[in-house]
């Protein structure tokens, strides 16, 4: 599942991350209000700690390509999906809140939580996002790090690393990752779509 994503010299090389401790839930809520209805900066909260991340262009590019490839797979395999971007997920009683890079609900049923959340780790933060998602009840989380996607599925009270997606059975992650480093998003989509069609016809 190794990708060959190349960092263009003109793009920022890191995300800007600010960390605060001793932050009340009310203060966290105020930060969300101040930020408004935008996808960035993304704000995470874990038991009094807040992390505010302004993603770099590279970070946004990677997460967007992964998302478009997931959507291409769903369209090619007739899987019903809804995309919710950086949906603010929070639970006051558990003192947790997070905003994924991308997230999806599959099927037509309404859902309180996404079935799949995608996280791009371009610059390492301090908060354990998996611990946040665990208590929020997100069924599956994909972590992209250094060219690799590692899926985690929620089983009982903990996440387990897995080699394949449970919410998108049949998806070949190694095949998907081959198209992350295409020069443009449109080339990535076309290449992945053609590969899926060849795989199905073969």
TrEMBL record:
<dbReference type="Pfam" id="PF05685">
    <property type="entry name" value="Uma2"/>
</dbReference>
<dbReference type="InterPro" id="IPR011335">
    <property type="entry name" value="Restrct_endonuc-II-like"/>
</dbReference>
<keyword id="KW-0255">Endonuclease</keyword>
<dbReference type="InterPro" id="IPR012296">
    <property type="entry name" value="Nuclease_put_TT1808"/>
</dbReference>
<keyword id="KW-0378">Hydrolase</keyword>
<keyword id="KW-0540">Nuclease</keyword>
<protein>
    <submittedName>
        <fullName>Uma2 family endonuclease</fullName>
    </submittedName>
</protein>
<dbReference type="GO" id="GO:0004519">
    <property type="term" value="F:endonuclease activity"/>
</dbReference>
<dbReference type="InterPro" id="IPR008538">
    <property type="entry name" value="Uma2"/>
</dbReference>
<feature type="domain" description="Putative restriction endonuclease">
    <location>
        <begin position="25"/>
        <end position="164"/>
    </location>
</feature>
